[in-house]
Amino acid sequence: MWTSLEPPSATVDPGSVARVRLRVRNTGDTVEEYRLRPAGDAAGWTRVEPDVLRLYPGAEGTAQVEFAPPRTPDAVAGPTPFGIRVEPTEHPEIRDVVEGQITVGPFAELHCELVPLTVRGRWRTKASVAVDNLGNQPLTVSLSGRENGDALTVEPEPTSVQVAPGRAAFTRVNIRPGAVSWVGGTNKHPFTVSVQRAGVPEPTELHGTYLQPSVLPRWAMAVLSLLLVAAVAFVALWFRAVPKVTSSAREKAGAAHKLPQKEEKPSAPAPSKPPEEKPEEKPEEKPEEPAGGDEPKDEGPAQQTIRSGANGGWYLQANGGGQEDGTQIGQSATWTEDQFGRNQWWTIHHYPEDNSVALEPGSAPGGVAQLKPGTNEVELMTADPEQLASGKLPPHQKWRLVDTGNGLTRIVNLSNDECLTDMQNDKGAVSFKCADGPFDRQDWKIAEGQ
Q1: Where are the alpha helices (DSSP H) in 353-419?
Q2: How remote is the C-alpha of 135 from its chain's centroid?
Q3: DSSP character string of 52-109
Q4: Alpha-carbon distance 307 to 231, whole Å?
Q5: Between 5 and 300, whose confidence is greater?
Q6: By Cβ atoms counted within 10 A, which residue in 230, 302, 321, 395 is the most buried?
Q7: What share of the chain is helix, strand, coil (3-state, %, to 5)?
Q8: If you write DSSP's letter for every residue of 160-176 in order, what string do you get?
Q9: Mean pLDDT throughout 409-427?
């Protein structure tokens, strides 16, 4: 059997079609039927016509190989190897794979959405911008806020994100009013968030509305006004109606009042008693304070283990007890105790402001489990100490704990809203779309021991 691909490589844009020719010659001495099947990453959008060639000895047949990549993130931009399996029916032992290369052209398509379009708050509030990469190449976008005059301050956080093909990224938008509205109902403030894609001069503008209700509603002001008028009227009536007091007492008849005579001298006053000595007051003795004098200090969050609900519960760990940035976060079916420096113990830092947590391995103090940018892989990365203490970490380094109702917890990353998933191996944990119902590989048990 002899095969040839003409040409061996081609280029095609998503949504278009490219073709190459496959030649097959029967070099045997019997009639042979050859089945042609595409293989490789491009097999999903590759077709061979015809897919069966029946050739006599010495005869040659031709088939067309057609490539039609869809205009979706499934057809990744760049060179992609492909293969065509040639399988003889009579002599399957001489089957062959003809290999070539198809280059898919890039295309960019970005979808942005402000969620929600209308936000409400007296002092400050938050919104989110969802950035979906519908193209077949990575995209970098920058975000900026624009307010109406000095009425608002609009600050995206972070201001730049990179989105992989077929993935989405979320950016928080912090909105603060320029002044507090104490009285006057609800004020409406329009604002705009601009999403600028790298290499494109015109940004995409997302428009929203910030509703700022006053601290004191109008009905409360009406009630206070009525109470003030009533108080003034009461005080005025009180001072106008001063009560007159008359005494009914009379002097008793026959009673005489003896007046002192001028010639009489007043008698000398009687000697007064010497003042009694009061016992000396002793100062109150304060109870002795216990030795040490220092109040017990808060030791901070305790270290805990994190186990999946699948196949007896694999332990989440920093692989090999590594402390270097980029160390994979994996799973292990066995309890290593202190073999790798407590790499299976985790300190869970909770931040009540946004109900999120950071996961710090016991073997790498100061490091956190993060989602590797542009992927769904989980790795170890050193965190900024102030951000770790205050909770101002970037979204891919923060997680949200969701109670599943059966004593287990789901661990959801804030950057892509996907669940931490147990891969049942020690190579690396990843994040996947959260299952709608119970899923033991996404349900974790958090405890203070094994």
Answers
A1: 385-390
A2: 24
A3: EEEE-TT-EEEEEEEE---SSTTS-SEEEEEEEEEEESS-GGG-EEEEEEEEEPP---
A4: 66
A5: 5
A6: 395
A7: 10, 40, 50
A8: EEEE-TT-EEEEEEEEE
A9: 87
Q: What is the DSSP letter of 224?
A: H
Q: What is the pLDDT of residues 170-186, one digit of tens each?
A: 999 998 887 777 666 78
Residue 243's pLDDT band (boundaries 50, 70, 90)?
A: low
51, 60, 175 from 32: Cα distances, Å:
14, 11, 73
Q: How many Cβ atoms sit within 10 Å of the Cβ of residue 290?
A: 7
Residue 275, CB-side half-sphere exposure with 13 Å CA sphere: 3
CB 127 within 8 A of CB 114: yes
Reading phi first (left if > 0) and then psi (alpha if -120 to 50, else beta), residue 92 is in alpha
| The CA-based dihedral angle spanning residues 64, 70, 75, 77, taken in that order and rounded to the nearest 10 degrees | 90
Q: Give me the pLDDT at residue 298, please.
A: 41
Q: How confident is the model at residue 257, as a pLDDT? A: 42
The alpha carbon torsion through 117, 119, 124, 130 (nearest 10 deg) reads -30
Give pLDDT, residue 353. Answer: 92
| Cα distance between residue 33 and residue 433, in whole Å | 45
Going from the C-alpha of 171 to that of each of 64, 139, 206, 385, the distances in angstroms are: 47, 15, 13, 22
- Distances from the Cα of 213 to the Cαs of 181, 218, 235, 271, in angstroms? 7, 11, 35, 80
**Nearest residue to 354 (alpha-carbon basis) of 126, 25, 68:** 126
Q: How far apart are CA 320 and CA 422, in angstroms?
A: 17
User: Does the pLDDT at position 302 exceed 70?
Assistant: yes
